[in-house]
Amino acid sequence: MTDIFQQAQVVANYGSLVTVAMEDGSLLSCKCKKKSLRPLCGDWISIQFTKQQEWLVDSIAPRKSLLTRHSYQKTERPLAANITQMIVVNAPEPGFDLQLTDHYLIAAKSIPVQAALLINKLDLATSPWQETFSLYEQIGYPVIGTSCKAGDGMKSLADLLHNQTSILVGKSGVGKSSLIKKLLPDLEIRIGALSSASGEGKHTTTTTTLYRLPDQQGSIIDSPGVRQFGLWDYSPEELLRGFVEFGSQETQCKFSDCKHHKEPGCAIRKAVDDGRIAQSRYKHYLQLLLNQSAR
Ligand code: GDP
Ligand code: ZN
User: Which of 31, 157, 277, 279 could form a disulfide with 271 if both were Cys (CB 3.0 to 4.6 A apart)?
Assistant: First the structure.
């Protein structure tokens, strides 16, 4: 009898063992065939049922994206594969953090994945949050508002997640785990199922895990590591790419290697003065640029 091959997606990784989801949603534990094969959560893989009656990881499909706890100079620790969307969560409590938001938007560009902004805890909003975030909408990022407490905005969130593999990032306390619990009401049962499927592997809440949404039309990848991956370092090019609205102006700068700081004839500074680029974004750009040169 020849070996049977099937396609599956890795939902959790425990070193030499991975748990995968089959097309019908059932979970299986598989061994990695070779040391060089290192499947990650989110990877699409081909698995092989051997004569020894065990499932082995045979190959990994090319990745669309790779999320690493990254540092462009130092070694990178891979966290998950095939993420398509980063949702940056802010909330009036513990407070909007536009600088951290800009940081995440740079990271999203460098992965690269698309990004969207989510403002949670609207039940606590005292200031017009739309005004604070309208500049992001103007430069092309979707912005949605939710309240886990009141249940508002869940339809917009479902639309945003549709057919995407998303991660939720943002500072602690903005409501990321509350949003995930709201989206996956059976989360406890799923974690139980993962624990039983993992065999020798122990599933804990710190393991990076892929959860298919209840309608199967999209997934969320989550873990404490994914939520806080934002301690990164990036190149000057990555920094600039993260400020998407600079793109169309940049070519107008007098010097082609303009850093948009003190150079004469800088089109970016002119756009800031004319109100075409938001002051807050330019300020964050300069802070990050100067931090970089100080390193
Ligand atoms: P995380 O650290 O981003 O995962 O945040 P959590 O989901 O743990 O939420 C932090 C706190 O905010 C918890 O006490 C939640 O109950 C609360 N919280 C989450 N969403 C909302 C919301 O929409 N409105 C209000 N008022 N509180 C919320
Ligand atoms: Zn310039």
Answer: 277
